[in-house]
Amino acid sequence: MRVLHVNKFLYRRGGAEGYLLDLAELQRAAGDRVEYFGxxxxxxxxxxxxxxxxxxxxxxxxxxxxxxPRVATAARMIWSPQSRRGLARVIDDFRPDIVHxxxxxxQLSPSVLAAARAVGVPCVLTLHDYxxxxxxxxxxxxxxxxxxxxxxxxxxxxxxxxxxxxxAASALLAVESWLHRTLRAYDPVxxxxxxSRFLADVxxxxxxxxERLHVVNHFVDVAGLPVKDAPxxxxxxxxxxATEKGVDVLIEAVAALPDGVPVHIAxxxxxxxxxxxxxRRRAPGRIRFHGRLGKTELHGLxxxxxxxxxxxxxxxxxxxxxxxxxxxGVPVVGTDLGGLPELIDAGVDGEIVPAEDPPALAAAxxxxxxxxxxxxxxxxxxxxxxERDFTPAAHLSRLRDAYALAAATVAR
Length: 412
What we know:
single chain, about 400 residues, Rossmann fold, six-stranded parallel β-sheet, globular
């Protein structure tokens, strides 16, 4: 099978990109031919066979200054002829059996779907966030949990100014989503893949192609992945450093942990400078920021720790950080939002705590740090879970079913 993966970024920027790249490796190992289409970016993996056809790089944060750049950026978010032309040329040369899309919003736009529909190539889209139900992606209104647009529609985002309190930014996102919904820009997608039941339920309530939704869990490949074999260790957060991830809550919790507990933060993102400053003030000398790590180095750091923290203040979908921690035999403390309670069995392979609650997070982390035998047993339970329920073979089989359904739908 010839699979073309489409995502705006083609480097390990976050969980969506990590999943995409790992899936591509899995498919190649199974005998598929795999290629990529995305936005031109200096951090993209290389070499990429079709990089010459990628649309130019555009940065949305910070917002470009000046009226003309802002208008151009807004137009590209809604419909990008450059992206459509580029994907059309890749399809013409590569001739994929399936176009598997991931995060295409803003930098690519759903114009890429028109390129696939024009030549009758079936499309599957994996949902990594809530964009099709919530114009600002995250079911957040200026940092607070919100699902108003799920029922009221995307234009509510403009009225509420939910994007950073800005009427202009909120209105742009609202109009973008409203136009895409009104023009049925996502009609060329035959199958929408949701990694979590929570996300699928949100999409159904928002009326996002409910008859095309299929829940397919992510996977973790534990073949050759060692399990933590030494007791003890500290706390690790691994992921994007952005406000919704709640890393500031973890830093506040660290102040309540015993002295000498090492705390590691792996990843990068726009919130890093503020988080480093907060760490200097609230937990001086106790937190190490590692930046973005390669997968092998990250797994080694996971195994060196006693527990992984996922302190999110937004409704996580199905974060790879949890599955990879379990794969390394390390328990997870996560919040009670989104798909996290679907992954973590409290008291078995981790703990669930309320979001935005540093004392509760500190208490849960402290219990595992104080009882290495319990922590190790939970980690082993997590490893058993992913070996049973999140295997590459099962994921690939379910995904091939989704591909076959998309192809059959196009052929009708």
